[in-house]
Amino acid sequence: MGTPPLSARNRELVNLVGVGVLTAVGFASVYIARQALVSSESLTYAALFLALYLVAHLVARYAVPDADSYLLPMVALLSAIGLTMIYRLDPDDAFRQSLWIVIGVLLFGLTLLVLRRDYRILESYKYLFGVGSLVLLALPALPGIGQTINGARLWVKVGPLQFQPGELAKIMLIVFLAGYLRDKREVLAQGRLKDFGPLLLIWGAAMVVLVQTNDLGSGLLLFGIFLAMLYVATGRALYAAGGLVLFVVGAAAIYRVFPRVESRVSNWLDPWADANGAGYQSVQSLFSIGNGGFGGTGLGRGTFTTTEGNPIIPFLNTDFIYSAIAQELGLVGSAGLLLVFMLFIARGMRVALVAGDGFSKLLAAGLTFGFALQTFIIVGGVLRVIPLTGITLPFVSYGGSSVVANFVLLAGLMLVSDRANARP
Amino acid sequence: MNKPIARLAFVATSLMVVLVIATTYWQAWAAGGLADRQENQIERVAQFTIERGRIVTREPAAVLARNRPKRVAGRTLFFRRYPPGGLAAHVVGYSTQGRSRAGLERSRNDYLTASNQNLSTLVESSLDKLTGATIEGNDLVLTLDMRAQRVALQGLAGRCGSVVALDPQTGKVLVMASFPTYDQNVIERNFGAIERVRAPCKPVAPLYNRATYGLYAPGSTYKVVTAAAAIDSGRYRAGSRFVDPGYCEVYGRRVSNYDTTRPFGNVDLRQALVNSINSVFCNIGKDLGSKLLVEYSKRFGFYDTPPLETPDNERAPSGLYQRTRLFDPKLDSDVDAGRFAFGQERLLVTPLQMAMVAGAIANRGAVMEPHVIDRIVSPKGTIVTRSRAKVYRQAVKPETATIVASMMREVVRAGTGTAAQIPGFVVGGKTGTAETGVEGTNNAWFIAFAGRKQPEVAIAVVLEQQDGTGGQLAAPIARAVLQALLGGTANS
Fold first, then answer.
1. Helix count and strand count (H, E) for chain A
2. H-helix or E-strand containing B354?
3. Using one digit for the tens of pLDDT, what is the confidence trace for B380-390?
4. Largest CA distance in chain A
5. What phi and psi values does residue B47 have, to the nearest 5 degrees?
6. Quick one: closest CA in B to A375, which residue?
7. CB-closest option in A276, A291, A380 to B42
8. Which residues of B touch A327 (CB under 8 A)?
9. Taking the CA atoms of chain A, what radius of gyration do you get in angstroms?
10. What pTM was estimated for this model as a whole?
11. Chain A contacts of B48, Cβ < 8 Å?
């Protein structure tokens, strides 16, 4: 028609303003529902939140002008939903989470600025990334700094700082695999046995991670990313299938040896068997989801505490944030949230499709699939589609390392997208 | 590499579709089943977000159940308190976190939580839910007179038993006491304390409402029903004459009068009731036959669970019992009509049923439908439902009732029930001392009606496992309760 189409960044800006309005509505409803507990300062959250994403937008405008215009607004929406929910559950946690989002956005901007000329130099440092990711994965196992929370050894504590190195290791592993697989894809595709050494090595590493962290989720995530990228690189579904079988075999062996994994699986099969003991978390989480019904209770009006004021579901704002959202926003809200995830995945895969070179394709596909698989593992666990494991819901769950790492993931996707779109 | 990427994209988005399907399953398909599960903490908490209606009485005013609001994690929860402790525990019942309920708290849960559905309440409660306003339940206003209720429990004085008083003209339940009782405030915290309640009877069973669920042999109080049947059937008159040899022969065995020291000789039906002569009623029973006796009992409400607002499973029907089941004889010979006629055989009755018998005699033969809820009032003060006086059964002709009533007045004036006399009031009654098969453990009964000129109250009192007569033990309790009730209305 008469009006010229909006440029990518202007589209992004319009979407971000829309997200800002939604965020304001979300915080306002929490404020209205819980006036007794939260103050009107909650509304300033929405304003600060919008300002923060405008800064991110300005950096993107400068560093990656041609990048996909929907990725950043979708991340803003996801983190807004997460922050609103965390705020509703505990305003103090929301304050810490918003600090982490600030740090995440800063790191996002920094990554864009540093790598805006050509991110592909990362390829030359692929082994550094590979070793780096192994070191990070091993950190929680070190005595003194390693921390065990909720039975899983995923944390590192240095002074007052506590983080999950696994989140960053995931991204470093993707960078390494993108470089390594682009290098070796022809060789691997030929299928000679001796070329599968590194593959078995990574399978072994995933098993070690599984054993050492005492958590099925992280191992499944890392190995799943690896299989997906191997498939993209070689085009051989058989490898992915074979790898999956190997993982299941390994996991089954571990299942017999480690009681924690075993209890997770038996809870998955029948959580009602011990509904007040081992199955309690899972069962109460299902009650929370069921309670939401179609329309939900409304923000701030759900039930998360007992009559004594104790939380009904432990780890509600990390592992179980999805059940909290499902209760207050209902099927409409939770399905909507999943649609945002799905759209983000579709956009991310589109970036991989249009990317010009193998490294970029593998990088974008790996980052996007990692994001998708992580979402599936935690939400699927909460919904009893698969056994429950403790990992975070990207951008939504409370947790610093996760937020920061996922902002770096976003930066990576936008860098690849910018380069792909900028090609004449 | 684009082909595998496209396939991977399909797999990744499919994973999200799986999650949407799973969410839909739990939120739409399985939601109802989840809400019903006992372990559901949310449902457990949710019932405390509703401001349950209060349970009160008006004349005199008393609160039997109310809420104590408490702020927990930013929302107001309402916890149930029962101010008078165990005073009317069996009628009011309880409502606990474990979602177990009893009494009116159970049977009228819908009204108390405002989930009773008609169009206006449906719109109102949906609006409340939308705006997040606290749902307020409806108040129950009971017909009980708590002063008289207290007198009744004091009268039982630690003996197991029950007192039921009705307004014979309207069916309003004025007193419904059962001992041993329990403190509803303790149910939640310390159920063990209730299990440890001691009382001089077996089983102790403090939770069950003896007034509507306790089954006792009625003994001689049942002679009122037999006398009414005898006269109403046209076979006898008050003046019909009998010769009492001191015993009655049934199936070749002698059944003695209560007082075995002397036979009464030549008496009429009126004297037989006044002195509670077993042999006379035994012969009347044999003459009328057990089928006719059962027929008349049904006209008083026997063989049906009496109507009342408490839960169905807290009330029992009266009648002949074969082990634990009601038994309706097909042939006259199935039942020993002689012993049936004076309240023995396998006859078991509830105190409520016997109060209904006294009420029918006092109300020209009409049994009124008993009710304990006078009205249900919405939070805005409008009346949701109001109970009306309804005839439940016409037991006997008005003339029959008038004759039997005069006979019962004679029992109190000059017979076995003199302990129930109240100066200035007309009182009619009938005593009963039912054998339970164990020596020294009789059920002591008294049923009565009383009023200034016309009967205003009907009452039944029973004491379990007593070593004494109904006239000695139960009549004084009836007298005290009647005085409390009539004294209260005398000034109004």
1. 14, 3
2. helix B351-362
3. 888 989 999 99
4. 69
5. -65, -20
6. B16
7. A291
8. 42
9. 21
10. 0.73
11. 307
Instruction: Considering only the beta carbons, identify the residue of A228, A232, A345 that sits closest to B16.
Output: A345
Strand ranges inside A159-309, DSSP E: 161-163
Where are the strands (E) in B43-144, listed by range?
55-57, 62-72, 75-81, 94-95, 101-102, 139-142
Answer yes or no: are the C-beta atoms of B363 and B455 closer than 8 Å.
yes
Amino acid at B425: F
Q: Which residues contact B198 (CB under 8 A, 6 or more apart)?
A: B180, B204
The mean predicted confidence, pLDDT, of chain B is 89
What domains can be seen in chain B, in order of their start residue?
Answer: 43-142 (3.90.1310.10), 146-376+388-490 (3.40.710.10)
Q: Cβ neighbours of residue B85 under 8 Å, at least 6 residues apart?
A: B183, B184, B185
CA distance A66 to B199: 87
B439: Cβ contacts below 8 Å, ≥ 6 apart: none
Tokens 């975070």 sit at which residue?
A: A392
Please state the length of chain A.
424
Least confident of A301-305, B185-189, B246-250: B246-250
Torsion on CA atoms B56, B59, B60, B65, rounded to nearest 10 = -10
Contacts of A293 in chain B (CB under 8 A): 27-28, 31
ipTM of the complex: 0.94
Question: Which candidate in A231, A306, A368, A416 is best for mutational testing of the B interface (most B CBs within 10 A)?
Answer: A306
The DSSP code sequence of A192-222 is -GGGGHHHHHHHHHHHHHHHHHT-HHHHHHH
- Is-contact A213 A166, C-beta < 8 A? yes
φ, ψ at B162 (rounded to 5°): -155, 150
Residues 6 or more apart in contact with residue A70 via CB below 8 angstroms? A11, A12, A15, A343, A347
Could you tell me which residues come within 8 angstroms of residue B240 by beta carbon, excluding any fewer than 6 positions away? B230, B268, B269
Element (H or E) spanning A169, and its range? helix A165-190
pLDDT tens for B409-445 read 999 998 898 999 999 999 999 999 988 777 668 899 9
DSSP state of A122: G
Residue with tokens 């029948």: A270
Cβ atoms B346, B321 nearer than 8 A: yes
Q: Are A67 and A116 in contact (CB under 8 A)?
A: no
Measured CA to CA in angstroms, residue B369 lies from A338, B214, B362, B387 at distances of 59, 19, 14, 10
Which positions ≥6 away from A128 have C-beta within 8 Å? none
The span from the CA of A290 to the CA of B24, in Å, is 9
- pLDDT tens digits, one per residue of A318-339: 889 999 999 999 999 999 999 9
Q: Are B411 and B274 in contact (CB under 8 A)?
A: yes
> Is B27's CB within 8 Å of A373's CB?
no
Quote the CA–CA distance of B426 and A298 in Å, as a whole number.
64
Strand order in the sheet with B75-81: B75-81, B62-72, B55-57, B139-142, B373-377, B383-386
Q: Which helix (H) or strand (E) holds A286?
A: helix A280-292
Contacts of B94 (CB under 8 A, 6+ apart): B80, B82, B101, B102, B103, B105, B184, B187
